[in-house]
Specification:
Layout: E1 5-8, E2 11-14, H1 18-29, E3 34-37, E4 54-55, H2 67-77, H3 84-103, E5 118-119, E6 129-130, H4 136-159, E7 166-169, E8 172-180, E9 183-191, E10 197-201, E11 204-207, H5 228-236, E12 240-241, E13 246-253, H6 267-270, E14 274-276, H7 300-306, H8 322-334, E15 344-347, H9 354-360, H10 362-372, E16 381-390, E17 393-394, E18 409-411, H11 428-450, H12 460-471, H13 476-486, H14 508-522, H15 529-546, H16 559-583, E19 606-612, E20 629-635, H17 641-644, H18 649-655, H19 658-662
Parallel strand pairs: 1-10, 2-3, 2-11, 3-7, 11-18
Antiparallel strand pairs: 4-6, 5-6, 8-9, 9-10, 12-17, 12-19, 13-16, 14-15, 15-16, 19-20
Helix pairs in contact: 1-4, 1-11, 2-3, 3-11, 5-16, 9-10, 14-15, 14-16, 15-16
Bound molecules: flavin-adenine dinucleotide (FAD).
């Protein structure tokens, strides 16, 4: 039996971004002893990078706003594939979550009359994003951290121990959710610094690990985004929903190469920035799709007037949902009208005075000045699409955030699927984290309380298997030699295309680079059937090779080892994305097929679910060369009639299937 540190908690939250921290606060406030685990230092989660703001229909800047308008915008943005109940709860509860943050100490930018200021963003009918300059995520995390410290101080006064009811385990990575039968029994992980293994036993686990962007070469995402929570859920037996939907943000930096992909916030366009091609044209006017025609300006003059008089003019098409803008930029570059480094121009310098740019977009000003030596108050930025967000995720119950099929497992934040349908609107993630982080924390605490003393025990055999799996990269060389001698192992059956791979240990960094290139080139912003088939073959080859990913040295802070372990997750998630993208023969939101370029109403009510082919999720999973994922279709739950009634019939006709319209 492997000797590991063990502790018992009521609720374990994996991830300390906005979703994880909000879940932990809620669970602790409802009486659950709660542990939070994160890969990086406490306070350094991806949420910190969020720039533009938190979408919430508070109606501070335009009195016309309310939750129904927000719900409508969210469904339009997601092309009606959103899990509608989530979109409803999100729109209704987001304002409360923002006000709550303020009572916990968040300092938002203000309107002239002292209310929380709200800014315009793509796809939102009214100014809706509560913000702190372009550093909103930092303030959100700071506030939640402060709240956690306040709760710990409260606990200290009562118990003499700050960490008696709420403890943060930083720089620790979870590699397995443990189960007893169908039920969650805890998590297995390692400390990144020492390499020591640990088990936290708990009847309820909340996954809030964020996204998957590091599977793609050009991405705005940080190093933490290796799809861990998605993979942990899959391996625990929970399905992933609609993984084909990956958001490519239209405006990432394109130059210099070392910073390619870093985000240029949508606030730049929300505050008046415009997109131009190499011929100086504001090309977005040529790319307004039929479903949005009535809502967007027809001329530059009308679009410009909208910033000052939104009630009598329509918004400029630079503020279309992200999928539309990203496709348009891609098309302009392809047509030879791109900027020198393969993007297009985004200009604020001719649109507002230098001091306004510096005040409203301070991070962008410094980002371009320091990283690209471009002064955005005097010249245009070069921008192009970058992999930014995954709409697909763990299939959850809308009200409770419970993962499907695994009692005791919950998911919130970017790792959860459904809320954003096929495309997320900017600002809707930070509000999603708060709304569903809170719900996940609440229901996890209730689940734990409901277990009484009869909690699922941790199975020692699972701990042994998880430890062996984690240690495998250290013995890759020996294993490869054994396979070489016996002729056994990878490559002996079902050879992936390209011939038998070498049996030498593989370098995890090389594998990661090949994976990123594959996903970028073959399952990127514009997809084609033969390329996705090619991607699946390449992924099979990489999976076989990844089993021989080997590292040298020891377990004390060893980044090569960490990456070797992360590869399992990125490969699993990438296979889900590629399989689902191949299956969905239409274009919708963050899934664009060159060979099926129209959005098909017949696909409107179809969800694609990915699950492990080996439902036990055993460490010795299925033969890697054959693929590990099975894909099934399911019909979505019909949208409740009173919510459908919020839309004009003419609009619904563009989206819903014949049967849905008839009903
Ligand atoms: P995160 O904040 O990423 O937290 C994930 C946590 O999980 C981290 O603590 C990480 O260490 C931990 N973790 C991961 N794997 C493991 C593991 N195996 N074991 C233990 N811990 C693990 N959205 C908006 O709504 N508005 C914006 O203005 C906005 N701006 C953005 C700007 C940028 C540059 C980017 C990249 C994104 C932006 N987004 C924005 C999107 C938004 O920031 C993210 O979707 C959101 O922060 C995700 O939060 P989360 O809590 O789900 O995950």
């Amino acid at each position: 039996m492997t000797v590991v540190d063990r502790q018992e908690w009521d609720v374990v939250v994996v991830g300390a971004g906005g979703a994880g921290l909000r879940a932990a606060i809620e669970a602790r406030e409802r009486g659950a002893r709660t542990a939070v685990i994160c890969k990086s230092l406490f306070g350094k989660a991806h949420t910190v990078m969020a720039e533009g703001g938190i979408a919430a229909a508070m109606a501070n800047v335009n009195a016309g706003d309310n939750w129904k308008v927000h719900f409508r915008d969210t469904l339009r943005g997601g092309k009606f594939l959103n899990q509608w109940r989530m979109a409803e709860l999100h729109a209704q509860e987001a304002p409360q979550r923002v006000w709550e943050l303020e009572t916990w100490g968040a300092l938002f930018d203000r309107t002239q009359d002292g209310r929380i200021s709200q800014r315009n963003f793509g796809g939102h009918e009214y100014p809706r994003l509560a913000h702190v300059g372009d550093r909103t995520g930092l303030e959100l995390i700071r506030t939640l951290q402060q709240k956690i410290v306040a709760l710990q101080q409260e606990d200290f006064r009562e118990t003499g121990d700050y960490e008696s009811r709420l403890k943060v385990f930083q720089e620790c990575t979870v590699t397995r959710v443990l189960k007893n039968g169908r039920h969650v029994s805890g998590v297995f992980g390692y400390e990144r610094e020492s390499g020591r293994f640990f088990v936290l036993q708990a009847p309820a686990v909340v996954l809030s690990t964020g996204g998957i962007g590091k599977s793609f070469k050009v991405t705005s995402n940080s190093w933490e985004y290796t799809g861990d929570g998605h993979a942990l859920a899959l391996l625990a037996g929970a399905p992933l929903l609609n993984m084909e939907f990956v958001q490519f943000h239209p405006t990432g930096m394109v130059w210099p190469p070392s910073v390619k992909g870093i985000l240029v916030t949508e606030s730049v366009r929300g505050d008046g920035g415009v997109l131009r091609n190499s011929e100086g044209e504001r090309f977005m006017f040529d790319y307004v799709p039929d479903v949005f025609k009535e809502k967007y300006a027809e001329s530059e003059e009308e679009g410009d007037r909208w910033y000052d008089d939104p009630d009598h003019n329509r918004r400029p098409p630079e503020l279309l949902p992200r999928d539309e803008v990203a496709r348009a930029i891609n098309a302009e570059v392809k047509a030879g009208r791109g900027s020198p480094h393969g993007g297009v121009f985004l200009d604020v310098s001719t649109r507002m005075p230098a001091e306004v740019v510096k005040r409203r977009l301070p991070s962008m000003y410094h980002q371009f000045k320091e990283l690209a030596d471009v002064d955005i108050t005097a010249e245009a930025m070069e921008v192009g699409p970058t992999c930014h967000y995954v709409m697909g995720g763990i299939a959850v119950d809308s009200d409770t955030a419970a993962a499907r099929g695994v009692p005791g497992l919950f998911a919130a934040g970017e790792v959860a699927g459904g809320m954003h349908g096929s495309n997320r609107l900017g600002g809707n993630s930070l509000s999603d984290l708060l709304v569903f982080g809170r719900r996940a924390g609440r229901h996890a605490a209730e689940h734990a309380a409901g277990q009484g003393q009869e909690r699922p025990r941790v199975d020692d055999a699972q701990v042994d298997a998880a430890a062996a799996e984690a240690l495998r990269p250290f013995s890759a060389e020996t294993e490869a030699e054994t396979e070489e001698k016996t002729g056994a192992g990878a490559g002996t059956s079902g050879e992936p295309a390209g011939g038998p791979p070498s049996r030498m240990p593989e370098n995890p960094y090389t594998l990661h680079q090949e994976l990123q290139q594959t996903m970028n080139d073959l399952v990127g912003i514009i997809r084609r059937e033969h390329e996705m088939e090619q991607a699946l073959r390449k992924l099979a080859e990489l999976r076989v090779r990844a089993r021989r990913a080997g590292v040298e040295g020891h377990r004390q802070f060893n980044p090569g080892w960490h990456l070797a372990l992360d590869l399992r997750n990125m490969l699993l998630v990438s296979e889900c994305v590629a399989r689902a993208a191949l299956e969905r023969t239409e274009s919708r939101g963050g899934h664009t097929r060159e060979d099926h370029s129209a959005m098909e109403r017949t696909w409107r009510n179809v969800n694609l679910l990915c699950a492990m082919a080996d439902p036990t999720g055993g460490v010795a999973a299925t033969a890697p060369e054959r693929g590990q994922i099975v894909l099934t279709r399911e019909t979505t739950e019909p949208i409740r009639p009173d919510l459908l009634a919020l839309f004009e019939k003419e609009e619904l006709v563009k989206y819903l299937t014949e049967e849905e319209l008839y009903e």
